[in-house]
Amino acid sequence: MNLYRAVRRGTILRTLAGKEPFYWVDQQPGVLELGTKFAQWAVDATLLSESTTVLSVGLGDDVSFETDLINRFGCSVYGFDPTPASRQYITRNVTDPRFRTFAYAVADHDGALTFNLPPEASADLVNASAVADYGTGRSTVTTLPCLTLESARQLCNIETLDILKMDIEGAEYAVLEQALANNWLAGVSQVLVEFHHFLPGLAPAQTRQAITALQQAGFSIAWIGRTNHEYLFTRAVSARRS
Questions:
Q1: 40: exposed, middle or buried (C-beta count within 10 Å: 0-12, 13-18, 19+)?
Q2: Residue 170: which region, alpha, beta or left (left: phi > 0; alpha: psi -120 to 50)?
Q3: Average pLDDT for residues 140-155, to the nearest whole number?
Q4: Residues 6 or more apart from 72 whose CB is under 8 A from it?
Q5: How many alpha carbons lie under 13 Å from residue 115 in its C-beta half-sphere?
Q6: Residue 117 has what DSSP assignment?
Q7: CB of 57 within 8 A of CB of 168?
Q8: How far apart are CA 8 and CA 136, in angstroms?
């Protein structure tokens, strides 16, 4: 896995040039990959049960990971995504009562965000960003409502949050910084996040800083996806309750 990431898309060359963070990970026996090829994430399955609560921010048009968590482990999942394309997909595909969804983005404030569309030639036209500077001249997605991580948690009436998953197109940096500063991850044992330092206007240094902050909070890197952008961070139950 580490070697695959190193050679994929010239990652090792980009790393040497300072354009791509790269961390080596020792394979953890309890780590299990779930979801389809295009929405694949990993969790430490030894920490999962029917009592596990998951907050998944940024659903897009593939919830196979969340569905696998529910079907295989009985987890309760709360999903957030306000973008029109995602809402249409969710309406058609999410029916399990253990998977509740909300039409809000998660950001570093309560209120609203204006999302920018990626270029028309982009391979991914579903996931708009409120952070990336695409500079395409395309009209923006309508302004959409947003909540902080803590407000999202309160909306769901979550007492104990076990897993936080974020794929929010560059907004992860501000959300993580705010959450760590306010101790909002105090009950979380697993954080899954896609870092978007490859988007225009963002930088690898932001990812390195976020990873360092998570490590200082007691998290360790347990898995990195094949693209080198999706990360799983875990920490012991005793550490998360301190």
A1: middle
A2: left
A3: 91
A4: 34
A5: 27
A6: P
A7: yes
A8: 27
Residue type present at position 192:
L
Q: Are 214 and 192 in contact (CB under 8 A)?
A: no
Rounded CA gap, 211 and 233, in Å?
9
CB burial of residue 216 (10 Å; 0-12, 13-18, 19+): exposed
Q: Pull the structure tokens for residue 194.
A: 């896609």
Contact of 143 with 111, CB cutoff 8 Å: no
Q: Which of 30, 37, 15, 68 is nearest to 230 (CA)?
A: 37
What percent helix, strand, coil does the chain show, rounded to 5? 30, 20, 45
The fold of 2-240 is: Rossmann fold (3.40.50)
Q: Report d(CA 25, CA 149) in Å as an integer.
A: 28
At 72, list the tokens. 């295989």
Q: Which two tokens mark 113?
A: 């965000």
For the stretch 206-241, pLDDT in tens is 999 999 999 999 999 999 998 899 999 999 865 444
Residue 42 forms beta bridges with which residues? 33
Parallel, antiparallel, or unpaired for β 105-106 and 230-234? unpaired
The whole-angstrom separation of Cα 47 and Cα 43 is 8
Neighbours of 242 (CB within 10 A): 8
Domain ranges, ordered by start, for the chain: 2-240
For 10-43, write each residue's pLDDT tens digit.
777 777 778 889 998 977 889 999 999 889 999 9
Q: CB 124: neighbour CB atoms within 10 A?
A: 11
> What are the Cα distances from residue 118, in Å, to 9, 94, 96, 133, 174?
21, 26, 31, 9, 20
